[in-house]
């Protein structure tokens, strides 16, 4: 998971070097990132279900193998087309591997305290991967060249495969006959991929084109849900949504991740475009946030979840995140890092409470034979939240900035006001997430923290 998340952010700081070396146009350069995100977000749900059907260990190993195999041509790429194709395969491999990780965790760690620790480590890797990627991308690009941001995946991936072969228990799965819904697989994969493509390409599409793509994506997904209600062996049994905690946790995650991932992107842009930070300096400036989130998720969240319950911890974390975004709504043009930004980096530690608590809630009602599906669903809503947040909030910030520039405002002032608007909306999204959590989520009994047996319903 560290490698998967790291690979989503390590490319961002190397984009100028990639553009110069391979001759990307400005419009096409974004596909270095988008070609990874589209298959990653689109294949998560299908990959999670495949884990239940043919075995999560097999899907995990296959995903890592595809990712490693694609990393080598990505590093060797001499043309834009080859790099984009390799990135697409990397995204597909990441979807296969990461879709089943939570399913593996909840079936391996049946003791509530041990599971809480495992989920804390899982959340820590997410926080660490995003920030390490930014720092490591700058170091590798400056010290060697951009090719090494892909080559580094090869030894890490091979070591992961070797360890997984020995450490993960073999499992047969329920068999393809238990859920080989080909039509459903085509509908959901096409709908999710088109949806992610629509979101990540919002800035490049016109309004009419965006609405058309978005409408088609919704129609495909609606067809998928209609299919699942009538199929003899559905790809995604709709019973998973009967749990208030599963449905509510996924809804809260979309709202919360929209704000949190946008924080990472927009604050980095603010530092570079307004304050004049370089790529490496920006990564280092964001490091306290990663340390705060990682430290809380690794050393604090498990204890708090066991003592007070995941719902209570989630609400406390959301309050801290609202405070962090509220602080950012007042950032000045000439911000001082210690007084204007460092407090935000510390308050964002609320993410270290939110992510493990959401994971506990989102997986609390998963049966053994649905653990991969629940894991894939949870990871899918995570990707949707991040993609939506970046697309919508970046568009709002850009629109505000362009309007002020047209009115004669200085560039730094216009940019700052645009980012302030985005941070204000982020705070609003987190407030809505808090309201949804209060209204929908229910405390998880200690018995529901145990891995359920196949076919047995666990109380939520």
Automatic annotation (TrEMBL):
Sequence intervals crossing the membrane: 29-47, 59-76, 88-109, 121-140, 146-168, 180-200, 206-226, 247-271, 277-300, 312-329, 341-363, 384-401, 421-441
GO MF, any single term: transmembrane transporter activity
Protein name: MFS transporter
PROSITE patterns, sorted: MFS
Residue span(s) of domain Major facilitator superfamily (MFS) profile: 1-445
The organism's taxonomic lineage, starting at the top: Bacteria, Bacillati, Actinomycetota, Actinomycetes, Streptosporangiales
UniProt keywords, alphabetically: Cell membrane, Membrane, Transmembrane, Transmembrane helix, Transport
Organism: Herbidospora galbida
Membrane topology value: Multi-pass membrane protein
Keyword Transport applies: yes
């Amino acid at each position: 998971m560290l490698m998967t998340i790291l690979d989503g952010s390590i490319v961002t700081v190397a984009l100028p070097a990639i553009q110069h070396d391979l001759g990307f146009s400005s419009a096409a350069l974004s596909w270095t990132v988008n070609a990874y995100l589209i298959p990653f977000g689109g294949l998560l749900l299908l990959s999670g279900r495949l884990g239940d059907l043919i075995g999560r260990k097999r899907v995990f190993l296959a995903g890592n193998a595809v990712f490693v195999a694609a990393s080598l041509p990505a590093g060797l790429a001499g043309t834009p087309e080859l790099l984009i194709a390799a990135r697409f395969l990397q995204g597909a491999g990441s979807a296969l591997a990461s879709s089943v990780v939570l399913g593996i965790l909840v079936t391996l760690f049946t003791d509530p305290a041990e599971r809480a620790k495992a989920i804390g480590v899982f959340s820590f890797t997410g926080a660490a991967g995003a920030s390490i990627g930014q720092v490591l991308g700058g170091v590798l690009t400056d010290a060697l060249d951009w090719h090494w941001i892909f080559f580094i995946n090869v030894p890490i991936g091979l070591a992961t495969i070797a360890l997984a072969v020995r450490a993960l228990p073999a499992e047969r799965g329920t068999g393809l006959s238990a859920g080989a819904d080909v039509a459903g697989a085509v509908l959901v994969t096409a709908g999710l991929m088109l949806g992610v493509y629509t979101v990540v390409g919002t800035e490049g599409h016109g309004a009419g084109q965006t609405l058309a793509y978005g409408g088609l994506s919704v129609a495909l997904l609606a067809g998928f849900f209609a299919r699942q209600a009538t199929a003899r062996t559905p790809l995604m049994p709709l019973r998973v949504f009967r749990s208030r905690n599963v449905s509510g946790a996924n809804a809260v995650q979309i709202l919360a991740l929209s704000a949190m991932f946008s924080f990472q992107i927009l604050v980095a842009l603010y530092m570079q475009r307004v304050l004049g930070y370089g790529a490496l300096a920006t990564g280092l400036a964001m490091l306290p946030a990663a340390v705060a989130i990682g430290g809380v998720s690794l050393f604090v969240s498990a204890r708090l979840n066991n003592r007070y319950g995941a719902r209570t911890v989630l609400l406390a974390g959301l309050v801290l995140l609202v405070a962090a975004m509220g602080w950012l709504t007042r950032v000045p043009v000439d911000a001082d890092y210690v007084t204007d930004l460092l407090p935000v980096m510390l308050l964002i530690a609320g993410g270290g409470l939110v992510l493990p608590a959401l994971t506990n809630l989102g997986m609390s009602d998963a049966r053994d034979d649905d653990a991969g599906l629940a894991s894939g669903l949870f990871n899918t809503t995570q990707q949707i939240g991040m993609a939506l947040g970046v697309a919508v909030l970046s568009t709002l910030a850009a629109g505000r900035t362009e309007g002020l520039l047209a009115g004669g405002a200085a560039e730094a002032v216009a940019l700052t006001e645009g980012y302030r608007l985005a941070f204000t909306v982020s705070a609003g999204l987190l407030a809505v997430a808090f309201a949804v959590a209060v209204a929908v989520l229910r405390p998880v009994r200690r018995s529901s923290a145990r891995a359920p047996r196949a076919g047995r319903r666990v109380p939520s």
